[in-house]
Amino acid sequence: MKKSINFVSVVGARPQFVKLAPICQAFADVNQPGGLDIRHSIIHTGQHYDDSMSTVFFDELEIPRPDINLEVGSGGHGAQTAGMLAKLEAQFQCDRPDVVVVYGDTNSTLAACLAATKLHIPVAHIEAGLRSFNRAMPEEINRVATDHCSDRLYAPTPAGMTNLQNENLQDRTVFSGDVMRDTVIRNLAIAHQRGQKSAAHGINGDYALLTLHRPSNTEPAVLFDLLSALDRIARDTGPILFPVHPRISAIVRDYKANLSASVRLIEPLPYLEMLSTVEGARVVLTDSGGLQKEAAFLKTPCITLREETEWTETVEIGVNQITGTDTSVIAVAIEKAIKTDFSANTLKELERCFGDGKAADFIVADMVEHFLI
Is 182 domain-assigned? Predict the structure, then answer.
C-alpha cells in the first residue's frame, strides 16, 4: 500500500466551489501530522472568472487559493472545453497527480476527466449519476461522459445510484450523500452567527427570489417574455428579487426600462447573503440545478423554470415544482408553493435522499482507502 498520495481537484464554476469547500475541509481533517502523506491541490480552470462568481466564493467559503489558475475564460462549448483540455493535459503531464477529482457537470468537469483518463490517471467524480434525460442540455452530455470515464463515482442521491446501475456502472459507484448539503448546513450557521441577513434591497415584506442563466431561458426573446410575465405576476403576488448573472447582464440591462418596481434587478449575491436571501424568500424561481437543492435544505419551496430536473427527489418529496416557462402554470405554482409544509416527515425524507451533512468526510475517507490500495 502507498504511504503518500496526491489528489488534485479541478473546478471552474460557482456550483463547483460550493462543492469543493467541504472536501477541502475534509482533506485538512484527515491529513494530520504523523499520518499518511495526503496532498490536495486545486486547479481553477477560469470558467467563471468574474469576482462575483469566483473570488468571493473562495473568500467566504474559506477555500484555499487555487494552486493554478488556467484562465481559460468564456467561449463556445467546443472552444472552451478544448482550451481547458489542452491546458489540463499539459499540467497533468507536468505534475502527475495520483487522482483527479472532478465535480458536477460543467465543461471544466468533462475537460479534466478526459485529460486525466487519456493519461491513465484515475478520476473520482463527485455528484455522479444525475440525469435529466435531456440531451439538449450540455450538462447532460458532460455528466454521462464523465461518469463513464471515471473510476470512482460518488452518487449524492438514491436516484443517482439507480441511474448508474441502469448504465452498468454499479461496480464503480457508492452512495455518498450530497456535499452541497454539507456546505449549506455549515455556512448557514456561520451566516446566523455573523448576523448575516439579506438586505432585501429595499423590498419590505414577502418576496420571491429569481435566478436565470441557462441558454434556453436567456435568449433575448424568451427572457423578455418571461420577465414581462413575471413582472405582471409579481404585482399580484409580491415583489421578485433578481440577482442577474454576469453573462446576461447586458441583455437584461437593455430591457430594464420595461419592468416595474415589482422586479428588482441586483448584482449577484455573495454566498452567505445568498443563503440568507433564499432562507427568507417565500419561494424561489430558478433554472439552476444547485439552487433547487439549496432551497429545499433551507425550507423554501422552489419552482423550476425548466421542463425537467436532475433532482427528481425534490419533486417527489413535494418541495419543488417543474413548470417550464409557461407563465399561467407558474402563477398557479406560486400560489401552491407558498402553502408548502416542511413537516418533520419532509425533512426526514430530505435527509434520507441527500444525507446528513457529512458527505465530504465520507468521500475523502473512501477516496483515500480506495486509491491507496
Answer: no
Whether residue 268 is found in the same domain as residue 170: no
C-alpha separations of 91 from 22, 52, 113, 120 in Å: 25, 27, 13, 14
40, 213, 245, 370: the catalytic one is 213
Does 183 map to a domain? no
C-alpha separations of 171 from 150, 162, 163, 285 in Å: 12, 12, 13, 37
Are residues 78 and 86 in contact, defined by beta-carbon separation less than 8 angstroms?
Answer: no
The single-letter DSSP state of residue 356 is S
Domain that holds residue 306: 197-353
**CA pair distance 181, 24, nearest whole angstrom:** 15
Contact 272, 62 (CB under 8 A): no
Over residues 65-72, the mean pLDDT reads 92
DSSP annotation of 342: -
- Alpha-carbon separation of residue 244 from 29, 147, 198, 264 (angstroms): 36, 31, 16, 10
Identify whether 201 is a catalytic site residue.
no
- Are residues 234 and 105 part of one domain? no
| Per-residue confidence band for 49, with pLDDT thresholds at 50, 70 and 90 | low
Nearest to 17 by CA among 73, 89, 77, 65: 65
pTM for the model stands at 0.91
DSSP for 242-301 reads EEPPGGGHHHHHHHGGGS-TTEEEEPPPPHHHHHHHHHH-SEEEES-SHHHHHHHHTT--
- Which range among 73-87, 129-143, 277-291 shows the weakest confidence by mean pLDDT? 73-87
Asked if residue 225 and residue 172 are part of one domain, the reply reads no
